[in-house]
Amino acid sequence: MSPMLEVKDLKVAYGKIQAVKGISFTVDEGDIVSLIGTNGAGKTTTLRTISGLLRPVAGQILYQGQDISTVPAHDIVGLGLAHSPEGRRIFPRMSVEENLLLGAYGRKDDGIRKDLKAAYELFPILGERSKQPAGTFSGGEQQMLAMGRAMMSRPKLLMLDEPSMGLSPLMMKRIMSTVTTLQEQGTTILLVEQNARAALKIATKGYVLEVGKIVTEGTGEELLTSDEVRKAYLGED
Ligand code: ATP
Question: Where, if anywhere, are coiled coils annotated (predicted)?
């Protein structure tokens, strides 16, 4: 079976700055694939390019066998690929429910109420405070909202950019365990994280990025136990 997502020799630049310098990786259906690496490695740029928010200089992005590198961002969502961006980007003055419904924008089916209920089951606090302005939420609650909103487009592939950013260890654990729950419910996940340990623990496969290139890859377990990764990314001697 061909991979759900196949990125081939992808290059992305901001003017003269080359942010992604020819990376290749695959995401199979049912996987949690984690991209880890230090600040500025090109992780966010990679996700934004897959989402159609940036255009590659070279390379291919095959989603279910179709090259989507020139497909507009709103059509990419329609193909079943959702993106929960870094920094959450929720709309603070709109209510929690209005934020969630924005994730279903463009959907024409009548399953939206059902999916709203599923989001409230996944994150009960969103249901309890559905009428509250989203800007009153804590960082962790806003992260739940961002993930819930991304799920409202009914994605086959969910891309999460730094879901643990700024969260307490406890909240981070909850978010990571929810990522696993989503996988168990049938969503394939591409996860970008600075917190390498947390991201590799739940990953079926991981890739390490350094200044725009993939330097190591393996199963989550292989990377967690590799000396090189432990020294450079897990802060161990
Ligand atoms: P972080 O975890 O810090 O977000 P990252 O791995 O996601 O890091 P990117 O945000 O993709 O890295 O950045 C990759 C490189 O591209 C960096 O050198 C960054 O400075 C540069 N870059 C990112 N966005 C822009 C931009 N809008 N204009 C110019 N350069 C940019």
Answer: none
